[in-house]
Design brief:
The complex is a heterotrimer.
Chain A lengths: L1 E12 L2 E12 L3 E5 L6 H8 L5 E8 L2 E2 L5 H6 L2 E4 L11 H8 L11 H10 L1 H5 L10 H13 L5 E5 L7 H16 L4 E5 L2 H7 L40 E2 L19 H17 L2 H32 L7 H17 L1 H5 L3 H31 L6 H23 L4 E2 L9 E6 L2 E6 H23 L1 H11 L1 H6 L4 H27 L1 E2 L3 H16 L4 H21 L1 H18 L11
Parallel strand pairs in A: 3-8, 6-7, 7-8
Antiparallel strand pairs in A: 1-2, 1-4, 4-5, 10-13, 11-12
Chain B lengths: L1 E10 L2 E11 L4 E5 L6 H9 L6 E6 L2 E2 L5 H6 L2 E3 L12 H17 L17 H13 L15 H15 L3 E5 L10 H14 L3 E5 L3 H7 L2 E6 L2 E6 L1 H6 L1 H6 L1 H4 L5
Parallel strand pairs in B: 3-8, 3-9, 6-7, 7-8
Antiparallel strand pairs in B: 1-2, 1-4, 4-5, 9-10
Helix pairs in contact in B: 3-4, 3-5, 4-5
Chain C lengths: L1 H4 L8 H15 L1 H4 L3 H26 L7 H18 L4 H25 L5 H21 L1 H4 L5 E2 L24 H24 L2 H11 L1 H6 L4 H27 L1 E2 L1 H4 L2 H14 L5 H27 L4 H6 L5 H15 L3 H14 L1
Antiparallel strand pairs in C: 1-2
Helix pairs in contact in C: 4-9, 4-12, 4-14, 4-15, 5-6, 5-12, 6-12, 9-12, 10-12, 14-15, 14-18, 15-18
Classes of the chains: A alpha/beta, B alpha/beta, C mainly alpha.
Chain lengths: 587, 259, 357
């Protein structure tokens, strides 16, 4: 029974007609090899099967059902696993996380099939050893093993494997051959693309029988099973003086896999600035006031910026219009709090907090909805085109802000704090009393909760895993069976909602809301995400705190300079780390 | 004369090019061969300056150019064609080549920082550059497509244009990275003829990364084999191809159409 | 002769040529064709924007660099002239000193910003220019003793450019010959010359390299061009021309303030014009600026009409008012980026090509 069948498949990439009427049948339970030299179209065939490139013509059927029009995640979900030529390893994720991502049924590592895992460790012992290390630190051979392990972490109906032996030392290739032999003995169906004939000889049941991916422009481009292998020479050729050879080097393995080290320098910078400010300010109580103010401001900015940096990191979308969500959130809050005057004027902390949280929830809902519309109408048509994104999202922001003026009017609207949240706590600091505004404490708490929640989602949930993996290699995430488009929209909406929340917090911080609030904060958040590194949540956090602290310290010490403290900070950090504090490695 | 001494590059823990030392003489054509992932293109990138070396040196005509950025190496006579076609997509075919001619001429006039800052003359007035570009297009049989945008060309023509850009630079060292990859059988001879003509000049240094063994056998004076970043064989074509080391490393490649 | 004047960069479309001729004649004879100070003001604004946007096209359309700092250089030019005229007393010396100082400051700033682009990616660069421009805007408002703060600076022009300067009592072809007229023609001549200079620059070997960099800067480096040098120079030239445009605006208005030159709205206007006109064409700046300024002035009248018609109607009334001009600008902006990617000039040239074949 043929598990996979291609008939008359043509694939074009841009102007280049690569596959000309490819016919291929992959029988169940066997290893089929697709052989040939570079450029013959082997990788293209696999990618076409996987739906990464669309077949313009022809039919592809899997287990009898047509798959040529299906999107990649759906094809993967039918039980096809793909190991690309580039391996598709998520370097910033650990080996464990890579495996977990590939195991669609498991929500966390505990749910992985331990028996199967043991079997995989038996095939590839290195994976057990480096289970908790970032996959990027593995050697080429180990990465290849991980890539194959991912493909078999759950039983699959078909494995598509592209040049696994590429660049590997013979010893490792032997390892792979044993693993494939074992898979073969378990009647796993494999379609294997290879240039290495040793592998072919060791494994092949059949080689793309009678079917050759042809290209009309190169009628000589022969591949497929009818190849004869060149006979190896009988003995060593007498070396002549002009030729030199050496033994084949093993692919260098790292002496010891370096532990995943946490880069703490930026945090030290944060601490250093806070500490350095103390003697400059002089009075410890003032320092406490300013530091809390700085932290509060920083955390509010973080809440707003976190969505933007994730959107950029994941979707590669430059949203220059993020400010509109901030403004929307702030204005919604004015309406909600205005309408809940009973609660905000009451002397009860709970009612006050209740009003504030209601306003925040409303703001997040509206901003999120606006974000959904924004993504659909404005952003989606221009995926991949940065210049257009910049222009269009700015245009979108202008339209949004003007609509806000239409609804709420063009003037400023005060956003007073509720009764019990006004005023300050007096904290004794070395004998003096430091005035710490109550609202700022609340802002810090909320900011920390958001930060904690984001970190938790990103690091402890599968959703977060998907996002982090998607930031590195969107295509591979789709090949593992996840519909990344939905993830995009979700992240965009979440980012907009967070901006809305930030808008409320900012409005309460300033106690006044203007329609320009979006544009004003926009510049600030750009500075923050540049400092932090596009796509990094931790970077965004540290960057925002740096900006908040700097603004408050310089505002006190040298108000005239305060304006440029942000820019100066940004320039200084870029000179130190041109990609930001925590650059994210993209594929 | 081009030489690399212990040239090495590491990406994180991975050594992509491993202490490769080699000396190339003018008037020779050396093929660099090896399986996929052996580091051939990376080695080229180290020589032409697209990648910075972690260790080792690159010397051109005795001068240490290891610290020089790519444009300045080109000005000193290193010409590079790329495996992944690198053209100016929305400019015309003619303009693509003319730019390379202009670059060469401006580079020769002034090898320093401010070469080619010619703001007030008309580019159209340099008819000699335009004429030379046209003649180069004729050599690669693209003259009739001169007004088309580079992006609109089919893949094979784009590869020819890539070669034409290198030819326009008229350098002392030619680095061809899989020049015929993706070309149809009738397009390949055009490029091979060009390379043969270059060889005939007897004063150019040609480096060639290629997978087609017949081409390699015919054109090379010498073959260098890379495997996992290190040089494992270096010598006359017949010997290198027949050596068991090379056969073992490079099995698939050796099993091409028997001649 | 025309060919050389236009640096062999012809319209290449009959309709575009006609349009350009109409525009040139219209602007050259504006005081005579469109009497009244409002019309002249509109024409003067067109001239300033032509220069401003053409200089931006050099950076964005030809070199492919997105920058939001253009209004900053515009403002530096305007404030340069305004500050010296206020402090040194009005006159040609003040204008010369102001312009020279402004050009020097712009040169320095654009060099620094341009060299900074060495170390950072293009997206970062765009954001950085936004931040710098915003900071500058705030600075201008803050240094009120120098810049007049939010109120800006009003000053007097050199005598010959003053409205009160009337050399000939009798009107010439129905138009009074006064300083305002002379100012207008100063603007016209300077803008015309600088535009032709820009046209020459983009059609020079240097200009061709800029386009190569825009298309594939990796390849441009590989054939021997140090792209940093070219990008920086493009930055500097663009900034210098914008500075002159700012000085011209200041001379025309006899006033400079944060919102005449530095506001983000103006940066958006520039972006809109360059997109609608056609990026990388230079003529796009001419056509775009004229269309835009016309629309801006007369559309507001239209909106005022709309608002009185729909007064009382809940949403429509609020949306169709001249105060909400920006809303329609934004919508227009978004629509043109989607549907008009090559701009007017690009579209006309494409049509001309299709006609030929």
């Amino acid at each position: 029974m043929n598990v996979l069948q291609l008939a008359g498949v043509h694939t074009h990439i841009a102007a280049y007609h690569i596959l000309h009427g490819v016919d291929l049948a992959v029988p169940e339970g066997e290893v089929t090899m697709l052989l040939g030299r570079n450029g013959a179209g082997k990788t293209t065939t696999l990618r076409t099967i996987m739906g990464l490139w669309a077949a313009r013509q022809g039919a592809i059927s899997f287990k009898g059902g047509a798959i040529d029009k299906l999107p990649t995640p759906d094809i993967a979900r039918l039980g096809i696993a793909y190991v690309p030529e580039s391996m598709g390893i998520f370097s910033d994720l650990t080996v464990k996380e890579n495996m977990l991502l590939a195991a669609r049924a498991a929500r966390h590592a505990a749910e992985l099939d331990s028996e199967r895992l043991e079997w995989i460790f038996g095939l590839f012992p290195a994976l057990r050893k480096f289970w908790l290390y970032p996959a990027g630190k593995l050697s080429g051979g180990q990465k290849q093993m991980l890539a194959v392990a991912r493909a078999i972490v759950e039983p699959r109906a078909l494995l598509l494997i592209d040049e696994p032996s590429k660049g590997l030392a013979p010893a490792i290739i032997q390892n792979l051959i044993s693993a494939f032999r074992e898979l073969k003995s378990q009647r796993t169906t494999i379609l294997l693309v290879e240039q290495n004939f040793a592998m072919a000889r060791a494994l092949g049941d059949r080689g793309g029988d009678g079917q050759r991916p042809r290209r009309a422009q190169r009628p000589h481009g022969r591949t497929g099973g009818r190849r004869r292998l060149a006979a190896a020479p009988a003995g060593p050729v007498p070396g002549s003086a002009s030729m030199s050879t050496s033994t084949l080097p093993a692919a260098a393995a790292p002496a010891a896999v370096p532990k995943a080290q946490f880069d703490g320098k930026p945090l030290l910078l944060l601490g250093a600035i806070a500490v350095a400010a103390l003697p400059l300010i002089g009075s410890p109580s003032t320092w406490v006031t300013l530091t809390v103010a700085g932290l509060a401001m920083g955390l509010i900015i973080f809440v707003i910026a976190s969505g933007l940096t994730l959107v950029f990191g994941l979707m590669d979308v430059l949203n220059f219009g993020h400010g509109v969500f901030i403004a929307m959130g702030a204005f919604v809050a004015t309406s909600v709090l205005g309408g809940m005057a009973g609660w905000t004027t009451a002397p009860s902390v709970w009612l006050n907090l209740g009003a504030v949280f209601t306003a925040m929830l409303a703001a997040m809902a509206v901003a999120g909805a606006l974000g959904w519309a924004f993504e659909r109408v404005i952003v989606r048509p221009v995926y991949g085109q940065h210049l257009k994104q910049i222009l269009i999202t700015m245009g979108g922001m202008i339209v949004g802000e003007e609509m806000i003026k239409v609804i709420w009017g063009p003037q400023q609207i005060p956003l007073p704090l509720p009764e019990t949240l006004r005023g300050s706590f007096l904290i004794p600091v070395f004998g003096e009393a430091a005035a710490v505004e109550k609202y700022r404490v609340l802002a810090v708490l909320i900011g920390l909760v958001v930060f904690g929640a984001l970190l938790w989602v990103l690091n402890r949930t599968k959703l977060g895993l998907l996002i982090r993996a998607g930031v590195q290699d969107r295509e591979m995430v789709e090949s593992l069976g996840y519909r990344i488009r939905r993830l995009f929209v979700g992240v965009f909406v979440a980012g907009s909602a967070l901006a809305g929340l930030g808008g409320v917090m900012w409005g309460l911080y300033q106690q006044i809301v203007t329609p320009q609030i979006g544009a004003q904060v926009n510049v600030l958040i750009f500075i923050v995400i540049i400092i932090g590194g596009l796509g990094s949540t931790l970077g965004c956090f540290v960057g925002a705190l740096l900006v908040g602290l700097m603004a408050n310290y310089t505002g006190f010490l040298a108000p005239k300079v305060a304006l440029f403290s942000n820019i100066g900070l940004m320039v200084a950090i870029l000179l130190w780390r041109p990609q930001g504090l925590y650059p994210v490695t993209n594929r | 004369m081009l030489e690399t001494k212990n040239l090495t590059i590491r990406f994180g823990g991975h050594v992509a090019v491993d202490h490769v030392s080699c000396r190339f003489e003018p008037g020779t054509l050396t093929s660099i061969v090896g399986p996929n992932g052996a580091g051939k293109t990376t080695y080229f990138n180290l020589i032409s300056g697209q990648l910075p070396a972690s260790e080792g040196q690159v010397l051109l005509g005795g001068e240490d150019i290891t610290a020089l950025p790519a444009p300045l190496r080109t000005r000193r006579g290193l010409g590079r064609a790329f495996q992944l076609t690198q053209l100016f997509p929305n400019l015309t075919v003619l303009e693509n080549v003319r730019l390379a001619v202009q670059a060469r001429e401006q580079g020769r006039a002034n090898a320093g920082l401010f070469a080619g800052l010619d703001l007030l003359r008309l580019w159209l007035d340099r008819k000699d550059w335009i004429a030379e570009a046209r003649s180069l297009l004729q050599q690669v049989r693209l003259a009739d497509r001169h007004g088309a945008s580079a992006a609109s060309l089919p893949h094979g023509d784009q590869r020819k244009l890539e070669v034409a850009l290198l030819m326009a630079l008229d350098p002392m060292v030619y680095m061809f990275d899989e020049p015929t990859a993706g070309m149809s059988m009738d397009e390949v001879p055009v490029v091979l003829d060009l390379i043969r003509a270059l060889k005939a000049k007897k004063d150019r240094l040609i480096l060639l990364v290629e997978h087609k063994m017949d081409v390699v056998r015919e054109l090379s004076d010498r073959i260098v084999v890379l495997h996992n970043g290190a040089m494992v064989a270096d010598g006359l074509p017949a010997e290198v191809i027949a050596s068991p080391i090379v056969q073992q490393a490079y099995l698939g490649m050796a099993a091409e159409e028997p001649a | 002769m025309i060919n050389r004047l236009l640096s062999h960069d012809l319209p290449r479309s009959r309709w575009l040529a006609v349009l350009l001729i109409v525009i040139v004649i219209g602007l050259a004879f504006a005081p005579f064709l469109f009497p009244g100070s409002k019309a002249l003001g509109v024409a003067a604004k067109m001239l300033v924007f032509i220069l401003l946007v053409a200089s931006y096209d050099l950076l964005l359309g030809y070199t492919g660099i997105v920058s939001f700092a253009h209004t900053m250089f515009f403002g530096i030019g305007a404030y340069g002239v305004a500050v010296t005229s206020t402090r040194m007393g009005e006159g040609w010396l003040a204008v010369a000193v102001g312009l020279a100082a402004a050009l020097a400051i712009s040169l320095l700033l654009s060099l620094v910003i341009g060299l900074f682009s060495l170390r950072v990616k293009a997206i970062f660069y765009a954001m950085i220019t936004l931040a710098v421009a915003t900071a500058f805007q705030t600075l201008a408002s803050q240094l009120s003793d120098v810049t007049g703060g939010e109120d800006g600076l009003s000053f007097r022009n050199p005598v010959w450019l003053s409205p009160s300067f009337v050399p000939f009592e009798t009107p010439f072809l129905g138009v009074a010959v006064d300083g305002k007229l002379l100012s207008y023609y100063l603007l016209f001549v300077v803008v015309a010359m600088l535009f032709l200079l820009l046209l020459r620059i983009v059609n020079s070997p240097f200009g061709r390299v800029l386009q190569a960099i825009r298309e594939n800067d990796f390849r441009a480096e590989a054939i021997g061009y140090r792209t940093v040098v070219y990008r920086t120079l493009s930055n500097v030239l663009s900034a210098l021309f914008a500075t002159v445009a700012g000085a011209l605006l200041a001379l025309w208005l006899r006033y400079t303030g944060p919102d005449t030159t530095l506001s983000f709205e103006i940066m958006l206007d520039i972006l809109l014009i360059v997109v609608i006109g056609g990026m990388g064409t230079m003529y796009g700046a001419v056509v775009g600026a004229v269309l835009f300024v016309l629309a801006q002035n007369y559309l507001q009248t239209l909106l005022a009409l709309g608002s009185s018609t729909f007064e009382g109607v809940p949403l429509l009334g609020a949306v169709l008012t001249p105060d909400r001009w920006l809303l329609w600008l934004g919508v227009l902006f978004v629509l043109s980026v989607y549907h008009f990617p090559a701009g007017v000039v690009g579209r006309l040239r494409l049509l001309a090509l299709k006609e030929k074949s």
